[in-house]
Design goal:
two-stranded antiparallel ribbon, seven-stranded mixed β-sheet, 18% strand, alpha+beta, 9 strands, 291 residues, 2 domains
Amino acid sequence: MKRRIIFLTCLLISIISSGQSKKKQIELLNGKLDSLNEVVSNERNNYTQVVQLKDSLVQLKDAEISSRKNQINQLIQGNERLITQLSELEGDKMILTKEQSSLERRIDSLTQIIAELTVNKEINSFRNSKNFENFLYSFLSTVYSNQKIDSLISISSPRILDFVEPSIGFGRFWNMGAACNLYNEGNYEYYDFPVQPDVADLPFFKDQDPQGGFCDEASTPDGIYYKQVYDLPEDWDVIKGESIPPPRKLKYLNKIMVQVQYNYWVVKTMYFIEFNDKWYLLYFDDCDCSA
């Protein structure tokens, strides 16, 4: 009996001790649980703050992107306006260029007219003179020296026609082959328009001929050689094989042959006539020494 009581007492003490131990464990677990809950709560708060911060950054980025897009759109619109303005300016430039070109042509035309009127006045004063050398100097200075006189002739320029008597006309002797023929209409068989040499400072040699200068270099000094002649060059009839004399109306007119020698070669031979007390250009003799 005593043993049972002692056993039961020990068992009861053990149970009570165990119960107290369990209670302490439960209390410890509850404390740890509270600590975990606090940690979780803090983490949740931190996460919430992080999410809010990220949301704020995203909103800022979105706002910045939207602002950049607006700036880009404004730049695109401004660029389109500039392109439109540039296109309009290009159109205005083309119009102004055309107007400028037209004005320049008008100015050139008026300048040419003024020059021709001035030259005509000067030429007429020489034509009315009996001094052929003065007239020749004016002719060479006006349409020959440093100019494309062949071009002026081929297009019947008024500058040349001022030196030509309409009732007599002008002709050019030229040989395509062996025969030297006269051409007095159309383009006068001109195919090249070289600039003639500057002869403004060459001396005049009256009543003289250059020595050589056609097939060989001349032995005489460069200059303007001129003399009175009584015969004119004759055209050649290829079919009949005979020469064609000049018109009879030229027979009794005063005639002067002019030969321009430059760099020891005769570069141009011309014939002038006096008609009604005025001097006129009659012929160019461009036949070479093979004719």
